[in-house]
């Protein structure tokens, strides 16, 4: 348990005033238009770049998707999403690094559909939530209250029948305990209980379609690049019992998680730990890229 958060009263969910107070404390710390948008545009020779929406905030953020240049309607689709939590940097940069490295690798096998930065405001302010104090990664459902989630779903929906794989790129950070979980508890009028932060990479599979061999193949690939998180003394990661080395499962659909927004047979969420003394920012990006590569290699082996 942690001390009461700086906004609100213990046991009372936030109302509009508290949410506005929280928003007033958020400041811009980095620039989407300088850091991320140019990297997306630099891929225009190798991908179709489609703007699928604009976030209607004080700053208007255009949202982009990358589609295989040689898109073939008969091919299955591999969906990669990053930056659902905009502060989780290696998810965004990992999606872009994968796109740059593999523009042609899977031609004739899969169509690639990559949404590299779903939450640009979160990227700029280093935030888990959007300006309305809503978590996009709990908001992937019909009539979503999060613009980020709603626009992504509307864009992806025409491809649902073809999506075979969806991998969503995330991080678990020390700020989960120092800021984001205490804020969540305060917002919802609950008592906060922090979790153990795993030191290393791990995966969150979907309880409705766990596909253990698929998850294991990703872990095996990532293990050659960066270290995998060991279970804690309760044989758990972030309070959830492990299913196998480096893997836990959530019911993504009922929780409104991004990885639950399609009917893809193979889904997973990556979790990188950038605050580990045993890693670097580049190593985290490499781990994200390796995870996508491992997932696709597994699918190719099933053909």
From TrEMBL:
<dbReference type="GO" id="GO:0008270">
    <property type="term" value="F:zinc ion binding"/>
</dbReference>
<feature type="domain" description="Peptidase M14">
    <location>
        <begin position="28"/>
        <end position="303"/>
    </location>
</feature>
<dbReference type="Pfam" id="PF10994">
    <property type="entry name" value="DUF2817"/>
</dbReference>
<dbReference type="InterPro" id="IPR021259">
    <property type="entry name" value="DUF2817"/>
</dbReference>
<dbReference type="GO" id="GO:0004181">
    <property type="term" value="F:metallocarboxypeptidase activity"/>
</dbReference>
<protein>
    <submittedName>
        <fullName>Peptidase</fullName>
    </submittedName>
</protein>
<comment type="similarity">
    <text>Belongs to the peptidase M14 family.</text>
</comment>
<dbReference type="InterPro" id="IPR000834">
    <property type="entry name" value="Peptidase_M14"/>
</dbReference>
<dbReference type="GO" id="GO:0006508">
    <property type="term" value="P:proteolysis"/>
</dbReference>
């Amino acid at each position: 348990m942690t001390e009461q958060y700086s906004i609100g009263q213990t046991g009372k969910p936030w109302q509009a005033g508290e949410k506005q107070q929280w928003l007033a404390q958020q400041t811009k710390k980095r620039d989407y238009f300088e850091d991320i948008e140019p990297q997306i545009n630099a891929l225009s020779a190798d991908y179709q770049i489609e703007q699928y929406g604009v976030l209607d905030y004080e700053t208007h953020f255009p949202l982009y998707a990358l589609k295989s240049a040689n898109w073939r309607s008969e091919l299955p689709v591999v969906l990669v999403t990053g930056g659902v939590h905009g502060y989780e940097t290696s998810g965004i940069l990992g999606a872009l690094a994968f796109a740059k490295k593999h523009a042609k690798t899977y031609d004739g096998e899969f169509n690639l559909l990559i949404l590299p930065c779903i939450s640009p405001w979160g990227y700029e302010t280093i935030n888990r939530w959007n300006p309305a104090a809503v978590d996009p990664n709990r908001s992937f459902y019909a009539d979503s209250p999060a613009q980020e989630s709603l626009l992504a779903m509307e864009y992806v929906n025409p491809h649902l029948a073809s999506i075979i794989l969806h991998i969503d790129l995330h991080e678990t950070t020390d700020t989960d305990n120092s800021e984001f979980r205490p804020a969540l508890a305060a917002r919802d009028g609950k008592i906060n209980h922090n979790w153990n932060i795993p030191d290393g990479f791990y995966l969150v599979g979907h309880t409705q379609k766990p596909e253990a061999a698929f998850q294991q193949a990703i872990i095996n690939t990532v293990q050659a690049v960066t270290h995998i998180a060991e279970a804690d003394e309760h044989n758990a990661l972030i309070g959830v019992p492990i299913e196998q080395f480096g893997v836990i499962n959530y019911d993504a659909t009922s929780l409104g998680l991004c990885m639950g927004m399609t009917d893809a047979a193979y889904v997973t969420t990556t979790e990188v730990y950038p605050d580990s003394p045993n890693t670097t920012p580049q190593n985290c990006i490499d781990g994200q890229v390796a995870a996508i590569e491992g997932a696709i290699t597994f699918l190719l082996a099933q053909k």
